[in-house]
Amino acid sequence: MSRFTTFLMAGLILLAIAPVLFPFTQFVLTIAIAKGFAALGVALLLRAGLISLGHAMFYAVGAYAAAFLATRLGITDIFAIFAFAIVTSALSGLIVGLFLVRYRAIFFAMLNLAVSMVAYSLVSKAYGITGGTDGLRVPLPTVLGTTLDKAGFDVVLYYLAVVLMGVVGFLIHRYMRSPLGHALSAVHSNEVRLEYLGVSARSTLLAAYTISATLAGIGGAIAAVSIGHVLPEYAFWTESGHLVLTAVLGGIAGIAGPFLGSIFLELVHTVAVGYAAEAWNMIIGVAMLVVIFFLPRGLFGLFERLTGVKSRQGEAEL
Questions:
Q1: pTM for this one?
Q2: CA–CA distance from 97 to each of 36, 87, 318 (Å)?
């Protein structure tokens, strides 16, 4: 087992025991993992040189899909909720991606922003369907037919989120090492040459966009059942900006980067609000500046130094 793999396993074990040692971190880490999934989706597109300023839309799609299945159809099993959210967000990403993957650079970023704000407006005003600005309540899900109390379900959800993070992270790792993943990098480095080789850049980007939307949808579903309430603000542009910041802060050179960035931000935010409620924004800002100035490759760059992984190896991860 390589040193890199050993550190990854140690990180997963640390996440597993964190709620036991510090119970207050369970909810914080659950939300951090949820946003980490969405940030990973953003990082996937950044590999192709594309910035999505509207990815919170798919985060909201996953959250509302979970709420609709539980409240409108009465299906409350957690695994059914996740499956429905995955399918819904994937279809949404495929439909939106068919139109957006034709564009590049600032046009791609702004069109994503425009589409997401249209979705936000629709969700905010469709009171009969989405509950409007009041949102939708998500009832406590069951687990394979078993009804748990809130505390018990939160424990199950947390460890399910950790397992999902490991499994999905491995699948994305394999995807990035596949020919399709290498083609995604080529879109950024030399799209014309990629087309000359007979590989469609649009098809490559459409696949990546759909996967990216699905990742965001998984995060939205986790957040929805954890918080128990879904609001239109999930799709607001500031949330999309937060996801981009999280991806860059954590570092896009590896699968773990977006999750590291998300966990870092959520923990700093929690501690700052608890101990300096009047200055938590400033504390978060200072923390981010420190990372940006001293860790140009993000938090994953620090992880690379600790594990002794070469830069090229880190780039191969994502």
A1: 0.88
A2: 21, 15, 21
